[in-house]
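Input sequence (197 aa), recorded before submission:
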Amino acid sequence: MNKGIGKSHCDFLLCLNSGDRLASPSVITEALPYLHDGDIIYGNALFCKPKKERLVTYPESFTLYHLWKGFTPCHQATFIRAELLRNDGYKECYKIVSDYRKWIEWKLQERSFKHIPLTVCRYMLNGISSTQREIHQQEHDSVVDELFTPAMKEQMEYIEWLKKGKCRNKKEHEGCSKVVTPLYVVCWRVISSFLKK
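Predicted structure, token format:
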């Protein structure tokens, strides 16, 4: 990808890996009207297996929480302002998540992410990022450790905690309180209810 970036002379770049294809012959022409503003402009993607396809549509905006969870735009469905990559390409020490690292870096730089209502690519699910899950997870964790400060991680974990529901894991989150009713009070309530009937 870095070699291709070095040889390019355009305003926006789109990277397709081997096996991946554009969703249709006209998709570039259809995307051009959307490429006048924004830094990272992403469409939807068809996730493909040999006998199965699934359309993945993405949210209108990506938050740091999305990225911390590993939910990113499909790289092959994303038009990226070329100057962002010409200045500093993908980190080659990451074999799988170099694009993921860039999403976080750009989000921290407050670059604009923009969704377009267009299916851009056919993404094949037989590549290294889909099949080498252990390496993928190790690289993901390494990027998070590199780019997220301890305070940011704490905020992300708190959001995760809120989404899962308070008090489900009291040991990990101090300060969560739980009302415990003494047994004699429960017994008294049951007896009182019975007597009222």
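Checked by second reader. The first strand starts at residue 12 and ends at 13.
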